[in-house]
Amino acid sequence: MTLPDIPRLYTALAEVLAVLVYAQAAPPRAAKPVTYAATAGWAAVLGVFLQLTGSVPLAWWLPCMVAAIAWLYLYLWGTREMNLLEAGYSCARAFILAELAASVEWQLHCVLWPQQRATAPLSVLLLAAVYTAVYGFLYWLERRHAAPTRLTITAAATLMAVVMAVTAFAVSNLSFISDNGVTMSVMSIFYIRTLVDMAGVLILTVQHEQLREAALHSELTAMDNVLRRQYEQYRQSKENIRLINRRYHELKMQIAAIRAERDQAKQDAALAEMESGIRQYEAENKTGNPVLDTLLTAKTLYCQQHGINLTCVADGTLLHFLTTGEICTIVGTVLDNATESVLTEPDPEKRLIRAAIYAQNGFVMLRFENYCADPVELGPDGLPARSSHGGYDLKSVRAAAEAHGGTLTLHWENEWFTVRILLPQK
Questions:
Q1: Interatomic CA distance for residues 387 and 298, integer angstroms
Q2: Which positions fall inside the Sensor histidine kinase NatK-like C-terminal domain (predicted)?
Q3: Is residue 29 within 8 Å of residue 78, measured between CB atoms?
Q4: Are 209 and 307 part of one and the same domain?
Q5: Is 229 helix (H, G, I), strand (E, B) or coil?
Q6: According to a count of CB atoms within 10 Å of the terminal CB, is the N or C end of the chain lower?
Q7: CA 128 to centroid of chain Cα atoms
Q8: What values do phi and psi take at 102, rounded to 5?
């Protein structure tokens, strides 16, 4: 009995759609028009190649399949920001998904109307319905379970995906080889192929979910470390400020004692100036929020020690709805990133940081600016790709802002890097 082969153009379309589903995990290397043109050309070449090799002898069938898979791999690696391992991993997933989609569609075709040609309207309608359902679901699943950060694909993960894809492909096609002249029924062969391909897709999906959960756990651990670090800095700063304030009180007592013992005009003027300076320093960090006062005082002392000019105008009473940890995360992390950035500036006169917290149209605006001569490139997630402005740190800031219905926006212009955090006023 002659087995009806899946039309080669059906297979080409399945492979193109499968590659596009998994290519979304990485940004394109070139601009969109260039990427679209490259995709169209690549798909056309793949379709022509599969169509021309559809009737090759059995000895050439496997080399032609390898060549088609290599073409999928080259597309992923050449048009997407993927390294060799990532391209191999995505190619393996795309190939086995294409096998599943093509198998399911052709099996339904043979069940419903086996006499219809592949180009008949009913056949084309079935093709569109099945491919839309399969790839639409996988596209939705990939978008819904997108990794928070770019996954780190190891050689072991790629090897497992490739071995699984090759195994599923080999097992699903073994049924087409007769054993001692005994050939299974057509539909039994289709059932086996579909089930094996489905098992391969499920296994690779589970593997990908494990990689995604590992990446999520790593990110949460990094964010938790940021929170702990900021809170520990807050506690240490609070103790340091308490000691400083006690020292100021002692200085006041000493000033009073000196003034009582000596009554010279110049000494009085100097002592009055010292006392005025102390009072001015104490007033600089009274924002109305004790947690914010502690953070700003600690950051100010750090900036003074490292030749950084930090100016701040803040109404701390606006942050009463934030917890201690949230204030430490938002304010402390952004200022840490800003000081780390300006410390790379060789000119001390350009080590500038400006901070402001104020009400604006029913919102609380936290605005932080620092001088930054080099342009700051933002990644696909809207956060800086350069480590000097954070990474996981700013992700924790964004998470804290979004927890209160707020937003985090970043901007670089005219050698100034700006972080804006907008929170609904409560």
A1: 23
A2: 326-424
A3: yes
A4: no
A5: helix
A6: N
A7: 33
A8: -65, -40
The Cα–Cα gap between 11 and 127 comes to 11
CA 319 to chain centre: 28
Q: Does residue 321 fall inside a structural domain?
A: yes
Q: Are residues 292 and 214 in the same domain?
A: no
Round to whole Å and give the CA distance between 407 and 278.
38
pLDDT category of residue 71 using cuts at 50, 70 and 90: very high
Are 166 and 45 within one domain? yes
Residue with tokens 């057509």: 186
The answer on 140 and 15 residing in a single domain is yes
DSSP 283: H
Q: Provide the domain limits for residue 419.
A: 286-426
CA dist 45 and 55 (Å) reads 17
Instruction: Tell me the C-alpha distance between 140 and 145, whole Å.
Output: 8
Condensed to tens digits (0 to 9), the pLDDT of residues 302-333 reads 888 788 898 888 999 999 888 888 888 899 88
Opening angle at CA 426, ends 325 and 292, nearest 5: 35
H/E stretch holding 198: helix 186-261
Instruction: Say how many C-beta atoms besides its own lie within 10 A of residue 418's C-beta.
Output: 16
Query: Which tokens in the block code for residue 102?
Result: 């093509």
Q: What is the CATH number of the domain that holds 371?
A: 3.30.565.10
Q: Are residues 182 and 304 in the same domain?
A: no
* Residue 417 · residue 389 · CB < 8 Å: yes
Amino acid at 233: Q
**Tokens (6 digits) for 279:** 């009072």
C-alpha span between 128 and 145 (Å, rounded): 25
Q: Are residues 66 and 211 in the same domain?
A: yes
In a domain, 269, yes or no: no
Closest CA to 10 of 110, 77, 80: 110
Q: What is the mean pLDDT of residues 65-72?
A: 92
- DSSP letter, residue 28: B
Domains of the chain: total: 2
**Is residue 238 one of the residues assigned to a domain?**
no
Task: Name the amino acid, one letter, at 207.
Answer: Q
Q: Are 215 and 291 within one domain?
A: no
- The pLDDT assigned to 288 comes to 82
Pick the closest to residue 165 from 97, 65, 68 (CA basis): 97
* pLDDT of 1: 42
